[in-house]
Amino acid sequence: MLKVLLVDDEPFISQGLSVLIDWKEEGYEIVNIATNGKEALDYLRENKVDLIIADIQMPVMTGLELLQHIREEEVSEAHFVVLSGYSDFNYAKQAIRYGCMDYILKPVSREELLGIIRKVSHDSEHLRIDEMNQRKMERAYLEQNLISLLVGKYDETNLDYVKQNVRFSEGVRYVDVAYSDVIEDDLQDDRMQRSLYREIYHALRELLGPDETHVVFDASQDEKIYDAGFIYCDYMAEERNEAEADYLEKLRVQLVKKNGKNICFLVGKKVQTMASVSQSYGTARILRSLEAFREKKELLYYENEVQVSQGGIVLCKNALEALISSIEDNEPEQIRECVDKLYEELKGMGVAGDVVNFNINYLLFQLMHLATEQDDEVNQEEILHFVSESSFEEGVMRGSSKHLARFACEYAEYLAQLRKKVSHGILDAIEKEIKENFAENLRLRELGKKYYVNSSYLGQIFRKKYGKSFSDYLTDYRMTEATKLLLKTDMKVNQIAEAVGYKDSDYFIRKFIELKGCTPSKFRKNREEEGIK
Question: Quick one: pLDDT band at residue 310, thresholds 50, 70, 90?
Answer without folding.
Answer: very low
